[in-house]
Specification:
By secondary structure, this protein is mainly α. It is 58% helix and 3% strand. The longest helix is centred in the last third of the chain and has 22 residues.
Length: 262
């Protein structure tokens, strides 16, 4: 045994106490702090304001579920094969969180944060100035042959209903910051650069909103996964009540056609 210390600002416990973020879990936090508020606090190491909690929890709600997405199907099929492993089914659903699904939140936050970090001088204050910055950022992305995260949606071709609602909530709470404003400008001017019109998707808007809350952009995908965990729990509960994974498996298996290798 050595005297080496392993410092943490999160949780500790002993025989009589469980402490979290400098507070007694039982006496100070339980029944007082909501789960979303606590998740924010654990990452930021500061207790969010009521306005921040409203925006943050709106993001979690927006990202919780989107129907039979690959993550939900993966979770249900894993549960079919291992009904004794609920944790495995949830993990299977979360492991596919990447650039195409669930990753747009972090990717968009990173993209916007990088663009803002490269601004010389003061940030824009008027829509026309934000539009000019957005045109510059988009042109650089196009010329580099890179992808603009947060644009387009496979289902909501003409507008993601989550986007205007989240912007409205952030505005109501005085939290429509530079990331959201730049993202909105990208939504206005991108046809001039890309030659086509795409909607600002909800996941990207969530990334902008989370970045405006001051949360680390390297952690934003974690919040997507936190939200989707609730959705996956719902899918697995429904799978218990109304199983469908077996039919998905049988449909694919029965329609599998052998093709000789080339």
């Amino acid at each position: 045994m050595t005297d080496e210390q392993f410092p943490t600002s999160l949780g500790t416990s002993d025989a009589d106490h469980i402490r979290l973020l400098g507070h007694e879990v039982a006496d100070d936090l339980m029944g007082t702090v909501g789960f979303g508020e606590l998740a924010f606090w654990l990452v930021a190491l500061r207790r969010p304001t009521a306005s921040e909690v409203r925006v943050f929890e709106s993001v979690l709600v927006a990202l919780a579920d989107h129907g039979f997405t690959p993550s939900a199907i993966a979770a249900r099929l894993t549960y079919l094969g291992a009904p004794d492993s609920l944790q495995g089914a949830i993990a299977a659903g979360l492991l596919g969180g990447g650039s195409r699904f669930l990753g747009a939140t972090e990717d968009t936050g990173r993209y916007l944060a990088a663009a803002l970090a490269n601004v010389d001088g003061d940030l824009p204050t008027r829509d026309s100035e934000w539009d000019a910055l957005a045109l510059e950022v988009l042109a650089q992305t196009r010329d580099a042959g890179e992808f603009v995260p947060g644009l387009g949606h496979p289902v909501h071709k003409h507008g993601d209903p989550r986007t205007p609602r989240l912007i409205a909530i952030a505005t109501e709470e005085g939290l429509r910051g530079p990331h959201l404003q730049l993202f909105e400008a990208i939504g206005r001017v991108h046809p001039q650069v890309l030659g086509r019109t795409l909607p600002l998707n909800g996941a990207g808007t969530c990334g902008a909103a989370l970045a405006d809350l001051g949360l680390p952009v390297d952690m934003l995908r974690g919040f997507s996964l936190l939200a989707r965990t609730a959705g996956l729990l719902g899918h697995l509960a429904e799978e218990q009540r109304q199983p469908m994974a077996g039919r998905v498996y049988q449909q694919v298996d029965r329609n599998a056609g052998y093709v000789a290798p080339q």
